[in-house]
């Protein structure tokens, strides 16, 4: 059953769909139809009179059973355009697309006064201008973003100086910001881990994930034009990933102005990052030059239709041109590929870099499975039929031939797979090879020293560890003991002591951790854009998408997605949302629930949830540091309180955390109902789940939240699988053509 709140809405609805009413054509003054005919089927609807805005139900919506055969169906593509929302001018009553008007439906509530561009220009200068919303410039700089932005601005200024006679206009402002900076653990796939367990192959690789975006100010609006996701494996990461960086994803749209500087700026972004990584002690950069599959987007949702997706050879040329320019500047010392470095001759598996999302780790998992299956088949049966089936698959027995020759069958097979496509796996040396060897030796020494230090601590008595002194030892008085206790309780003194004891390395990221629900992974930002129809297919949409992305960045508490009221068809962006427990797709806004919820008795009961509001407050540096320290202390307390079974625990904070967890388990209002305590607990649990590496964690909801994170990672893995499959199919076709 459908209801229409006003005559204008109903009239525009039927005019847009070009329906024929049973009572005749739609008139300008009166619309009182009770039936409509859709493809010969008469359907009862609600009558609406222009003299009254109240809706009266004449009859229920009765649909006859219609059997549709295949011949009556039409073949259609899933390319229907999403209807854009409108906004009405409060002065001249014009209707304007929200996207065209850059109207933020999340921030502007139903009572907001809006002026269309015509009325705004007419009143310009008569009233004080409204404060400009927070944009890219208001996002705090990191050392990386400032380094990249300075390089990009300098390159644009140099071009402008050279071409000042032909193009006197100055380039518009550009901003580079880092939206995510988090520590992650890259897990090694199970087949590889099982196969090389005797080689003491690492089960995981610690890394730092970064998201960097480039904005350009266009017509007063900051527009996202370029983005990249980067993985840094620092000095603490075990070999073979030690001191390497991996360019995971890179995406762009062609709206940069002036257009002739677009490639220059996009090249400079990556060259500047490589220069920054080189200064921090990384010695090798890796790139997989693979264009997206048809229908896939890397970072930005819906690229312009006339923006061509580069082919394999053109994309490789783009990267090689960039790296040659970096080599001329002294940033890169040598350009090669993964096959020449690690697969041309028989290499040890522990010397081949293993990156998350890269081609060879995923393909090696499939090859390891094939080798294992062949070995099982060979043990079970040696029939000619199965041998023939193996020959048709192009696999050589179970790898025993290679192993008898003293070579690794997996490495040999991967070398054969990678050789035709070796140019796609680019390796750029940022430092001379002797530097990489020296850093490898240094890492081994640091690892041995840390193991010896740990062994000494374990051998020491429990009441006397390395670095401690007996309380009654000579030369230590009570004053120094009390001062030491005071320093232990002082957070600043504790941080200074930790910094003195910890060995500092230049690859350590001095920028603070930046966690974002929207930018931590490529898939999260893509899901945000897909769910809200934030698209980049034309400039006006790119402006609106960038505006909304910045709004989410500055207001992390607002919900990612809005639901539409099933009665008035308006997005519920404030107040309360009432969701039917019988039909979870049925929602009512606060106003409709108060007035008309009794009409929907078949949808009872309703669950109330509070829609988040804005939070545009900006934290100072000291507040941000205190917040980070407080979060870390709360994480330690949460872990302790979840496993503590001592009813008389001496820690007062432990009892407080236990009471909070007990409240979260028994509260009936919960986060959806607006409980502030539950919201605080849920935020702590989410932070813990992202950091937790325990298989059997005692913290509540940890396993559930980890499953959600795994589901998100599974989406990413599916895209990586499609990339590998498309690349294998493309080179298989090329090999067939060459054979013919």
Short description:
With 740 residues, the protein is α+β, with helices and mostly antiparallel strands. Helices cover 41% and strands 13% of the residues. It has helices at residues 7-17, 117-122, 143-162, 190-195, 262-279, 312-328, 338-343, 359-380, 384-393, 400-404, 409-418, 433-459, 478-489, 491-501, 522-532, 539-554, 590-596, 621-643, 652-666, 676-691, 702-739, and strands spanning 20-21, 35-38, 41-44, 86-88, 95-97, 174-187, 204-218, 221-233, 244-252, 284-288, 334-337, 425-429, 576-580, 587-589, 606-610.
Detailed description of the structure:
By secondary structure, this protein is of the alpha+beta class. The protein contains 21 helices and 15 strands. The chain has helices at 7-17, 117-122, 143-162, 190-195, 262-279, 312-328, 338-343, 359-380, 384-393, 400-404, 409-418, 433-459, 478-489, 491-501, 522-532, 539-554, 590-596, 621-643, 652-666, 676-691, 702-739, and strands spanning 20-21, 35-38, 41-44, 86-88, 95-97, 174-187, 204-218, 221-233, 244-252, 284-288, 334-337, 425-429, 576-580, 587-589, 606-610. The strands form 4 sheets. It has a 7-stranded mixed beta sheet, with helices on both faces. The chain has a 3-stranded antiparallel beta sheet with strand order 1-2-3, with no helix packed on it. α5 (262-279) crosses α6 and α19 (652-666) crosses α20 (676-691). The N and C termini lie far apart (63 Å). The model is unreliable at 1-61, 393-399 and 462-504 (pLDDT under 50).
């Amino acid at each position: 059953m459908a209801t229409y709140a006003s005559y204008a809405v109903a009239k525009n609805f039927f005019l847009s769909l070009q329906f024929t009413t049973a009572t005749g054509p739609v008139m300008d003054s009166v619309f009182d139809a009770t039936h409509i005919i859709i493809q010969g089927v008469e359907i009862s609807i609600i009558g609406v009179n222009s003299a009254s805005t109240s809706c009266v139900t004449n009859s229920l919506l009765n649909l006859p059973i219609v059997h549709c055969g295949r011949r009556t169906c039409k073949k259609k593509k899933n390319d229907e355009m999403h209807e854009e929302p409108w906004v009405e001018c409060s002065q001249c009553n014009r209707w304007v697309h929200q996207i065209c008007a850059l109207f933020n439906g999340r921030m502007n509530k139903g009572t907001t006064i809006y002026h269309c561009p015509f009325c705004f220009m007419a009143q310009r200068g008569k009233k004080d201008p409204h404060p400009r919303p927070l944009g890219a410039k208001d996002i705090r700089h990191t050392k990386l973003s400032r380094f990249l932005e300075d390089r990009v601005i300098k390159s644009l200024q140099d071009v402008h100086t050279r071409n000042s006679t032909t193009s006197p206009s100055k380039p518009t402002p550009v901003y580079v910001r880092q939206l995510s900076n988090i520590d992650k653990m890259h897990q090694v796939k199970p087949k590889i881990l099982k196969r090389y367990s005797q080689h003491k192959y690492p089960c995981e690789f610690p890394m730092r994930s970064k998201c960097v975006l480039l904005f350009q100010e266009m017509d007063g609006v900051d527009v996202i034009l370029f983005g990249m996701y980067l993985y840094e494996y620092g000095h603490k990461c075990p070999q073979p990933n030690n001191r390497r960086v991996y360019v995971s994803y890179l995406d762009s749209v062609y709206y940069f102005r002036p257009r002739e500087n677009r490639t220059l700026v996009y090249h400079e972004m990556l060259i500047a990052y490589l220069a920054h990584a080189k200064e921090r002690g990384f010695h090798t950069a890796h790139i997989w030059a693979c264009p997206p599959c048809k229908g896939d987007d890397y970072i930005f949702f819906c690229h312009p239709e006339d923006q061509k997706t580069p082919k394999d050879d053109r994309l490789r040329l783009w990267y090689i041109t960039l790296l040659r320019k970096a080599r001329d500047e002294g940033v890169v010392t040598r350009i090669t590929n993964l096959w020449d470095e690690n697969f041309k001759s028989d290499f040890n598996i522990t010397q081949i870099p293993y990156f998350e999302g890269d081609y060879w780790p995923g393909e090696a998992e499939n090859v390891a499975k094939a080798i294992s299956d062949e070995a099982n088949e060979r043990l079970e049966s040696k029939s000619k039929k199965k041998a023939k089936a193996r020959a048709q698959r192009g696999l050589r027995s179970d790898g025993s031939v290679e192993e008898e020759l003293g070579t690794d069958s997996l490495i040999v097979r991967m070398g054969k797979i990678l050789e035709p496509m070796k140019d796609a796996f680019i390796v750029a040396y940022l430092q001379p090879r002797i530097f990489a060897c020296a850093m490898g030796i240094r890492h081994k020494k640091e690892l041995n020293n840390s193991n010896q230090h740990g062994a000494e601590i374990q051998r020491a008595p429990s009441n006397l560890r390395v670095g401690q002194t007996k309380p009654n030892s000579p030369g230590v008085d009570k004053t120094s003991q009390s001062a030491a206790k005071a320093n232990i309780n002082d957070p600043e003194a504790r941080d200074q002591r930790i910094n003195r004891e910890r060995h500092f390395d230049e690859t350590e990221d001095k920028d603070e951790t930046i966690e974002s629900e929207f930018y931590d992974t490529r898939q999260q930002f893509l899901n945000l854009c897909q769910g809200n129809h934030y698209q980049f297919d034309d400039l006006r949409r790119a402006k609106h998408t960038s505006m909304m992305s910045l709004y989410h960045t500055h207001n992390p508490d607002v919900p990612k997605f809005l639901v539409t009221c099933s009665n008035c068809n308006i997005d519920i962006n404030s107040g309360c949302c009432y969701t039917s427990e019988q039909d979870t797709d049925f929602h009512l806004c606060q106003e409709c629930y108060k007035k008309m919820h009794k009409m929907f008795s078949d949808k009872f009961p309703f669950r109330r949830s509070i829609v988040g509001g804005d939070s545009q407050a900006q934290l100072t540096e000291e507040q941000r540091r205190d917040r980070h320290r407080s979060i870390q202390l709360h994480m330690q307390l949460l872990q302790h309180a979840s496993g503590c079974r001592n009813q008389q625990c001496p820690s007062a904070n432990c009892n407080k955390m236990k009471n909070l967890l007990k409240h979260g388990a028994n509260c009936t209002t919960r986060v959806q109902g607006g409980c502030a305590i539950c919201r605080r607990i849920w935020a702590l649990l989410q932070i813990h789940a992202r950091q937790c590496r325990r298989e059997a964690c005692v913290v509540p909801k940890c396993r559930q939240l980890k499953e959600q994170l795994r589901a998100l990672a599974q989406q990413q893995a599916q895209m990586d699988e499609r990339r590998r499959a498309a690349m294998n199919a493309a080179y298989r076709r090329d090999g067939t053509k060459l054979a013919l």
